[in-house]
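User: Let's play a game. I give you a shape written as tokens, and you guess the letters that built it. Ready? Here's round one.
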């Protein structure tokens, strides 16, 4: 639409407005593509936010369904164990890389939860070393501690080699009966007869307890 078709009639009707209208260009190209892109980005974020809010509501109204409480329930009474952990965190927790060690627990926060294991329930611990390659060229190593408890559940805690060694030393200092180190025979025994593996560690613990009692 030309300027004469719009501006000229207005100027004739309102002479005082002559010269007040500036040239204007109207962009009439489509705008839907930008809207589709915005929708494609915002819709998944909205769904994720709704899911997180729903999950938070469920865990607030039904705390017994929280994954951390489920782990604690497999050990004992969840509320008592949670209170014990809180007390130990206040009096003597030690930060070891990404993990926290108390006198009885190893805790490793994750993005959406917490990995947790009770030291006295541990059966087998070892350091896992993963070698990384790019086009068959070594690019480095990553380290993690694998902590297996008597139920057969493993907690993996990654970190620097120094921190992993320190964490394993803490565990073995507090539970010297735990089997330490990895080899194929231990792996075979753990997969073929976990109950026998646990029983052997229980015997080691009993022997260590008797030796400690005799020494005192």
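Assistant: Ready! My guess for every position:
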């Amino acid at each position: 639409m030309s300027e004469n078709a719009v501006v000229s009639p207005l100027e004739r009707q309102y002479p005082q407005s002559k010269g007040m209208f500036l040239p204007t260009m109207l962009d009439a190209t489509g705008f839907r593509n930008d809207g589709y892109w915005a929708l494609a980005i915002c819709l998944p974020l909205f769904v994720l936010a709704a899911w997180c809010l729903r999950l938070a509501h469920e865990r607030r109204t039904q705390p017994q369904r929280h994954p951390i409480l489920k782990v604690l329930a497999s050990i004992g009474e969840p509320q008592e164990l949670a209170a014990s952990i809180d007390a130990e965190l206040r009096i003597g927790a030690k930060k070891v890389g990404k993990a926290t060690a108390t006198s009885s627990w190893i805790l490793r926060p994750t993005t959406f939860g917490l990995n947790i294991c009770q030291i006295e329930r541990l059966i087998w611990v070892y350091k896992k070393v993963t070698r990384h390659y790019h086009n068959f060229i070594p690019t480095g190593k990553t380290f993690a501690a694998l902590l297996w408890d008597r139920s057969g559940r493993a907690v993996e805690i990654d970190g620097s080699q120094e921190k992993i060694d320190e964490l394993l030393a803490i565990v073995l200092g507090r539970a010297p009966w735990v089997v330490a180190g990895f080899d194929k025979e231990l792996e075979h025994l753990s997969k073929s007869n976990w109950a026998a593996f646990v029983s052997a560690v229980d015997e080691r613990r009993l022997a260590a307890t008797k030796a400690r009692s005799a020494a005192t």
